[in-house]
Design a protein that fits this description.
With 182 residues, the chain is of the alpha+beta class. The chain is 28% helix and 42% strand. The chain contains 4 helices and 10 strands. The protein starts with a strand and ends with a strand. Keywords: Hydrolase.
């Protein structure tokens, strides 16, 4: 199975991201856009994993959740990753020291479980679309879209499976661990 560790969003946040995505779609020639129900914040992509390895992932998130209380995030602006002429368009997360510390603790916990540390730097974002061809420059689109600074509650960390159901990419939570409430 193909898995990743993530922060899941409540429905109102997914609805908002869908509204932003609709504007981006209108400003795009084409793209492979994320299904609204799949919006999330990836903390760490793991990849192909055997079912018996899930216990190591559970142990890692259980360990960090013991020391991490609920916190909140907010959106920043639209951004992109480019590879050649292919673009991933995303909504960024405003700098958040608690999220950065959570990521560092997660990396340590995963390293202790035998997962090598991530080589790329952590750029927290929510993917709106892949292989997007924009009709105009992203700077121009950013000028037209006001990204709301709404509060995004972070209450748990989840192990998610990426699979296809009836031909549709679907993310299924396999295990979630609540953060402590203070």
């Amino acid at each position: 199975m193909r898995v990743f560790l993530a922060i899941e969003f409540p429905d109102d946040i997914k609805e908002y991201l869908d509204q932003v995505q609709q504007v981006v779609k209108k400003k795009s020639v084409k793209g492979n856009f994320t299904n609204k129900k799949n919006f999330h914040l990836t903390l760490r992509f793991i990849g192909e994993t055997r079912i018996d390895e899930l216990d190591k992932l559970k142990e890692a998130i259980n360990k960090i959740s013991l020391h991490q209380s609920y916190f909140q995030l907010s959106f920043s602006k639209l951004g992109q990753f480019t590879k050649g002429n292919k673009r991933i368009i995303w909504v960024g997360i405003k700098h958040n020291e608690i999220l950065n510390q959570l990521y560092i603790l997660l990396e340590r916990a995963l390293d202790e479980q035998g997962y090598p540390r991530e080589e790329n730097s952590f750029v927290p974002h929510i993917t709106l679309g892949r292989q997007v061809v924009l009709a105009e420059k992203l700077d121009k689109i950013n000028e037209k879209i006001h990204i709301d600074k709404m509060v995004i509650p972070v209450r748990k960390i989840s192990i998610m499976e990426s699979t296809r159901l009836n031909g549709e990419l679907t993310y299924i939570p396999l295990y979630s661990k609540s953060l402590i409430f203070q």
